[in-house]
Write a structure and sequence with these properties.
The structure is a homodimer.
Chain A (H helix, E strand, L loop, with lengths): L13 H8 L5 H8 L6 H7 L5 H13 L3 E6 L5 E6 L1 H16 L1
Antiparallel strand pairs in A: 1-2
Chain A binds a DNA duplex (30 and 30 nucleotides) through helix 4.
DNA sequence: TTTGGTAGTCATAAAAAACTGACTTATTGC
DNA sequence: GCAATAAGTCAGTTTTTTATGACTACCAAA
C-alpha cells in the first residue's frame, strides 16, 4: 500500500505549522476580524467581500481545528452561533499586529 | 470584458501580504535556511527533503519578488549563485523567531 | 403548519499550486 | 571541440484549494 505520494507533512520548519494556520485566501481576514470581537457566520458572509459560504465554512473549521477560534452556541432571541478567539488565538495577536505594522 | 472570476486580489487584510510572502510548501523552510546563511540552488535541492527543482525555483523567485531574498552571482572557482536575505528579509527574522517559539 | 432567520452541507466545477522528467544555458577545464 | 558542473526552464500531469448553486437542519413566531 505504499502510495507514491504521501501527504506525510514532513514539516521540518517549526514556523510552518503556525503560518499554515493563517494561510489561504480567507483565514487572515477572518482572524483579524475575530480580534475585534465575536464573529457570526452571516455577518462574515456580508462583510468579507467576495467570500462565499463554502469557503468561509472551511476556513472557520480550520481555524477551529487549529484551536485559534472556538464555536459558542448563543441561546438568545434568534438562536445563533458565535466564533471567539481562544486563549491560543489571543496569543497570536501580538505577532499578527507586528505583521500588520510591517505591511 | 467583465470576467466572472477576477483575481483582483482584494486584500483588505494588511497582514495577508506578509503571510503570503511565506506561504506555500517550501518558502517557510527556505526562509529559515536563509537566516542561517547564503543559499545555493543545488544545496537546497539536497537539503530540503522532498523538494524538487521546479518548486524550489518558483519559491525562490517568489521570495525574490517579495524582496526577502536577493540573487548574487559569485564569480569564483565554480561560478555559482547565492541567495541572501535582503534588509527587508532580515527585518522579518524577529517575527519568524516568535512564530517558531510558539510552535 | 407554513414562513423566516441562521447556519450550514453536498456534489460538482474551476482555478491555483505542486510534481515529474526531459531539455536548455552558461561557464570552466581538458 | 567535448565533457562536467551549476542553475535552471518547459510541457504535461496530478493534487489541493476555492467557488457555485442547490439543498438540508434547527428553532421560533404566526
Amino acid at each position: 500500500m505504499t502510495t507514491k505520494k504521501m501527504s506525510a507533512e514532513n514539516e521540518t520548519c517549526p514556523a510552518q505549522a503556525l503560518l499554515k494556520m493563517l494561510s489561504g485566501k480567507w483565514k487572515p481576514e477572518i482572524f483579524r476580524l475575530a480580534t475585534k470581537g465575536p464573529l457570526r457566520f452571516s455577518s462574515l458572509l456580508r462583510e468579507v467581500a467576495g467570500s462565499n459560504k463554502q469557503s468561509l465554512s472551511v476556513a472557520l473549521k480550520e481555524l477551529e481545528e487549529a484551536k485559534l477560534l472556538q464555536k459558542v452556541i448563543i441561546r438568545e432571541k434568534p438562536l445563533h452561533i458565535e466564533y471567539n478567539l481562544t486563549e491560543n488565538g489571543k496569543s497570536l495577536i501580538p505577532i499578527f499586529e507586528q505583521l500588520e505594522s510591517l505591511g
